[in-house]
Amino acid sequence: MGIYQLEYVLHEPEESEGWMYLAEVPALQGCMAWGETPEETLKSLLAVAQTIIQLRQEDGQALPPEITPLRSPEGTLTVTA
Fold first, then answer.
1. Taking the complete model, does pTM exceed 0.85, yes or no?
2. Which site in 4, 8, 34, 46 is 20 to 30 Å from 70, CA atoms measured?
3. pLDDT tens profile 49-60
4. What is the model's pLDDT at position 42?
5. Which residues contact 60 (CB under 8 A, 6 or more apart)?
6. Residue whose C-alpha is closest to residue 67's, from 37, 36, 26, 30
7. What's the CA dihedral at 5, 1, 63, 10 to 10 degrees?
């Protein structure tokens, strides 16, 4: 278990995404979430990131080097897994 800092990208709603926000963590393949508001989207993204990190740790897989210890600049997501 640890606290990680993940950079994320929050995309504005587009018609192709059903007018929902899309957020993703580029360092974690497949780590994406959609929501009706930025807050809802980031909350879902946090849950997805926690699950991916936990599964990687359980499988003995190394985390990508882009995942770093906690800092607090804007545009990052803190994940405890």
1. no
2. 34
3. 999 999 998 999
4. 96
5. none
6. 26
7. -30
- Measured between alpha carbons, how far is 15 from 72 in angstroms, rounded to an integer? 32
Q: Do 48 and 22 meet the contact criterion of CB atoms below 8 Å apart?
A: no
Contact predicate 5/75, CB 8 Å: no
Q: What type of residue is 5?
A: Q
Other beta carbons within 10 angstroms of residue 19's beta carbon come to 10
CA distance 75 to 17: 21
Please say whether the beta carbons of 46 and 79 come within 8 A: yes
Match 């993204």 to its residue by tokens.
45
Tokens describing residue 26: 């580029």
What is the β-pairing status of strands 76-80 and 68-69? unpaired
List the structure tokens of 48: 């997805």
